[in-house]
Design brief:
alpha+beta; Nucleotidyltransferase, domain 5; Actin, Chain A, domain 4; 30% helix; globular; binds adenosine-5'-triphosphate
């Protein structure tokens, strides 16, 4: 956070913690956010919600959502095609959208900042920066922004986490000769890789790649599966249906994973895990790494992809910046063994690995404040890119790509299409029409259409007809959020299919 333009990065909560787990727990009488929620997960697994970043802006039927739903102890329902967690609330079952849950976490962040400042944040022109994985699509970005609005954050802006980490790495350094920096960010749920050119305060993203479903939680889950089969083999029974036992096992697995980052062997001791059976087992680092093999190769592929897209080889990278808690895993660091030791930086090293993104967000927030001093706003410039290509699929299945991935944003591209049908549900245009895609600095897209030779136009935010929140809906959530205060204490080419628009592509 920033305070009178002193950039503080992570600030501590009332208990001195500089990081808040993105976890919410509901009981009959209150709800808990952060560490308090994490601490009670084993006794209240069905009403403790985590990993909402894997849900936000997605559809219930998405393959990734379906695979997570099988592993999560809480109940998920399909509400108008959105994935919505359901919990036992005060007096009834209650559903909270991923936006509402994220908003509760953001509200907690706002309160920590206000306590630190000793005042409420009232400046309506102030800008708040929320970081997202670089590989979040338009819908996930919009949903995150909406969560910011529900949390009553001023002017929420979305920033890519890898770019934030690059800002943290380069801010305040005199980099006069161009440096090509590869940022590898492997956190709890997502992995992002970006290649940037940094020189004289300009941070230009050249290429980016990522997986919004690859992070520490996946390594934990691999260990859970490994121990589940060991338990079954040893004790001839399963614990899959026992959500309390599963939660205890998952917490132990995270601990085991972290211990194996610094030791080559450790053990799990869970007393009376199920039916009075104690589960005691040891595990080596190799035994942890083996079932996680495909996760390591997924991460490696992302590094190769950004280099390939930038037409660069490893030796031309000046520096590799590792961020995110999961880069402490030795096998993850080994992915960079073919880079020289001098290339892999310690400037944002393992001890700062999970703080870099927050620090970079505060740098970007400082730059964006309307009253930012010119030494901040004029000397630092971040040029980010669109992670996906954007195009239109015409009625005949032909595809026109309007904006290629890795194009610097904000950007705008117009093309003439011929609209054959007279009846279009979204825009009242037909015949020859200009179709324009705008991608703003948040990576959020707007589509507009103008009929050639007439003044008929229409504008829509992409996907706004398919699951995004209407402003009345945000207002309702805002009201409910105030009622529900925290208790004290695919690859490279996503096409925007606009099936409602029966276009025939006449683009040159
Ligand atoms: N010593 C360690 N060894 C291995 N993993 C670790 C270690 N310390 C923390 N982690 C893992 O790092 C992850 C959290 O990292 P971080 O705080 O960067 O993620 P995040 O910002 O919450 O996640 P994301 O970037 O996906 O939103 C957790 O999965 C945690 O288990």
């Amino acid at each position: 956070m920033i305070h009178n333009f002193i950039i503080s990065g992570n600030i501590a909560d009332s208990e001195g913690r500089r990081a808040t787990p993105s976890i919410i727990a509901f009981t009959k009488s209150k709800h808990f956010v952060g560490q308090a929620a994490k601490d009670q997960i084993a006794v209240n697994p069905r009403n403790t919600i985590f990993d909402t970043k894997r849900l936000i802006g997605r559809r219930f039927r998405d393959v990734e959502v379906q695979s997570d739903v099988r592993d999560w102890p809480f109940t998920m329902v399909d509400r108008g095609s959105s994935p919505v967690p359901e919990v036992d609330g005060r007096s009834e079952t209650k559903q909270f959208t991923p936006e509402e849950i994220s908003a509760m976490i953001l509200t907690k962040m706002r309160k920590i900042a206000e306590t630190h400042l000793g005042q409420t944040i009232t400046n309506a022109n102030a800008v708040t920066v929320i970081t997202v994985p670089a590989y979040f699509n338009d819908s996930q970005r919009q949903a995150t922004k909406e969560a910011g609005l529900i949390a009553e954050l001023n002017n929420p802006r979305v920033l890519n986490e890898a770019s934030a980490a690059a800002l943290a790495y380069g801010f305040g350094k005199q980099i006069e000769e161009e440096r090509d920096v590869l940022v590898f960010d492997l956190g709890g749920g997502t992995c992002d890789v970006s290649l940037l050119e940094i020189q004289n305060g300009t941070f230009k993203v050249m290429t980016t790649a990522g997986d919004t479903h690859l992070g520490g939680g996946d390594f934990d889950q691999c260990l859970v599966r490994h121990f589940l089969s060991e338990f079954e083999r040893k004790h001839k029974r399963t614990i899959k249906a026992n959500s309390q036992a599963l939660c205890r096992l998952r917490s132990a697995c995270e601990q085991v994973k972290c211990t194996l980052s610094s030791q080559t062997k450790t053990s799990v001791q869970l007393e009376s895990l199920v039916e009075g059976i104690d589960f005691n087992i040891s595990i080596t680092r190799e035994e942890f790494e083996s079932p996680c093999k495909n996760l390591f190769s997924k991460a490696e592929c992302l590094v190769e992809q950004v280099l390939k897209d930038a037409k660069m080889d490893k030796s031309s990278v000046d520096e590799v910046v590792l961020v995110g808690g999961s880069t402490r895993i030795p096998k993850v660091r080994e992915l960079f063994r073919s880079f020289s030791q001098e290339q892999v930086t310690r400037s944002v090293g393992p001890d700062e690995a999970d703080k870099a993104v927050a620090y970079g967000a505060s740098v970007q927030a400082a730059i964006l404040q309307p009253d930012a001093p010119s030494n901040i706003s004029q000397n630092v410039l971040l040029l980010d890119v669109a992670p996906f290509s954007v195009g239109i699929e015409a009625a005949n299945g032909a595809v026109a790509t309007l904006i290629k991935r890795n194009t610097i944003i904000p950007t705008r591209k117009s093309t003439m299409f011929t609209v054959h049908s007279n009846k279009i549900s979204v825009f009242e245009v037909h015949g020859k029409s200009w179709i324009t895609f705008d991608i703003d600095a948040n990576g959020i897209m707007t589509l507009s259409a103008t009929e050639a030779g007439s003044s008929k136009t229409g504008t829509m935010t992409i996907f706004s007809d398919k699951g995004r929140l209407a402003s009345e809906e945000i207002d309702r959530m805002l009201r409910e959020a105030t009622d529900y205060q925290e208790a004290e204490g695919q690859n490279d080419h996503i096409l925007t299919k606009i099936s409602a628009l029966p276009f025939t592509n006449s683009a040159k």
